[in-house]
Design a protein that fits this description.
This protein is 74% helix and 0% strand. By secondary structure, it is an all-alpha fold. Helix 5 runs antiparallel to helix 7 (86-103), helix 5 runs parallel beside helix 9 (119-144) and helix 7 packs antiparallel against helix 9. The longest helix is centred in the middle third of the chain and has 26 residues, at 119-144. Keywords: DNA-binding, Transcription, Transcription regulation.
Length: 198
Amino acid sequence: MSDVEQRRGRPGYDRAGILAVAVATFIEHGYDATSIALLAERLGLSKSAIYHHFASKEALLAAALDAALGGLEAVVSESEAVGGPAEDRLAHVLRGAVHVLVARLPEVTLLLRVRGNTAVERDAVRRRRDFDRAMQALVVEAQDAGAVRADVDARIVERLLFGMVNSLVEWYRPDGPEGAARLADDVLAVALDGIRAR
């Protein structure tokens, strides 16, 4: 590659492509240990080519976390999640969370690893807590309706349900035999049968 080509950056990476490589690198090395220089090396681009698409490393992180959180927040705001019996709404959100995780596996994996060390991470943690609180409230509604067993604290129920969903990032493989729809069915069968009131 000539010096001119190196300075301009190689064609072949758009904004989404750069973000995908950044997310994979953040997961592999950790966000703090990943530099723009390392990303440029991985991409075969100049740093200025990355900055053409993203103003900073933190902007890359923000875009990745927003993809994961935005997907979850969208599920919670869907009509099936805001109307009808609480048990059905809970099932809808669980199913939707599985679909988001499968569709956004790298971004959700990254989301689950942030610890609040930067302003972007703290915002992501806040949004995750808002999601958790909304889910706890939904569990309470289902308990009050007699659909979900009330002998287990709603906070514990919510943590166990979404802990199971979140654990998919550790073992789920998109190229495996089970697609998102079947996986969501299996999660719902295991999760809801365990918490359903007798």
